[in-house]
Amino acid sequence: MKVAEPHSTRIGFIGLGLMGLPMATNVLRAGYRLVVYNRTAAKAAPLVQAGAEQAATPAEVAQRSDIVLTIVTDGPDVEAVVAGEQGVLAGARSGMAWVDMSTISPDTTRRLGEMATAKGMECLDAPVSGGPPGAEAGTLSIMVGGRHEVFEACLPLLRTMGSTITHIGELGAGQVAKACNQVAIAATMAGVAEALVLGSKAGVNPARIREALLGGYAQSRVLEVHGQRMIDRAFAPGFFVRLHDKDLHIVLAMARSLGAAAPITALVAQHFNSLVAQGEGELDNSAMVKVYEALADHRIGSEPRSQPNHGNNGT
User: Fold this and answer.
1) I need a labelling partner for 104 at 20 to 30 A (CA). Which of 40, 74, 84, 182 fits?
2) What CATH superfamily is the domain 177-296?
3) Which overall architecture, per CATH, does domain 10-171 show?
4) For the chain (length 315 residues), average pLDDT per consecutive 10?
5) Residues with Cβ < 8 Å from 78, sequence gap 6 or more?
6) Residues assigned a catalytic role
7) pTM, full prediction
8) Domain 10-171 matches domain 177-296 at the CATH topology level
């Protein structure tokens, strides 16, 4: 497989949502020839205006590309755009590559990879972390599974979208790493939410708590970004509750198949489940704090309720 090069390698991009659109924009800005597809065709307009071509189907994207990138919501969506009647495989040819940047089950990745390999395609799974800000800045962390030779050939292309790009192992290993990423973020977010609600109910300004914690061992990107969102109640989505919920259920399925305990994941998944059940799945995942506020009967920043004074009972 040839190494990806701007101006000569033809790139197909499928999925132009919160993450996909800025990622595809960075690919185009780097000088790659770009053809795009999105189920809602109007979302491709900014890219077409900037010089990309628009395809009518994923199969057409494959026909006009050397490397096809996909980033869609869930496993069934990846199956539809790759293995559907007008999917990537329908337009594929030997020697081209498919790089899936969605977050899905490693088992689904491997199964679709086998189908693509049977068509003579090379495959990588390359899920990402960093949210829309990272997608816009081209600073995503990209976790890659697949043959090392294919990884090296695609690396110049991946560098247009990410600054930390790690080859994890064989196909599916990228999805395993992304599952671990989602566990660590969710667990930290739950801890941040619990701490801020507890401190606020004790009558202490949560902004000051966050400021202090950022200077010690509790410092984290989650505390820095999501802690501020919790305090500001800024729940416009960077990453949807419903998607983090979906990701944790992938983790739990993995854990069950491996016979590995994942008690923290199970707890936090139920927190996200409760938000989805209340119709709040479209909020940013920092809305986790709302679960802890309900459990404590206290909203961050509000006055703590007076506590009963039991006094000295003489014993």
Assistant:
1) 40
2) N-(1-d-carboxylethyl)-l-norvaline Dehydrogenase; domain 2 (1.10.1040.10)
3) 3-Layer(aba) Sandwich (3.40)
4) 94 96 98 96 95 97 98 96 97 97 97 97 97 96 98 98 98 98 97 98 97 97 97 93 96 96 97 97 97 97 58 43
5) 70, 72, 100, 102, 104, 108, 112
6) 178
7) 0.92
8) no
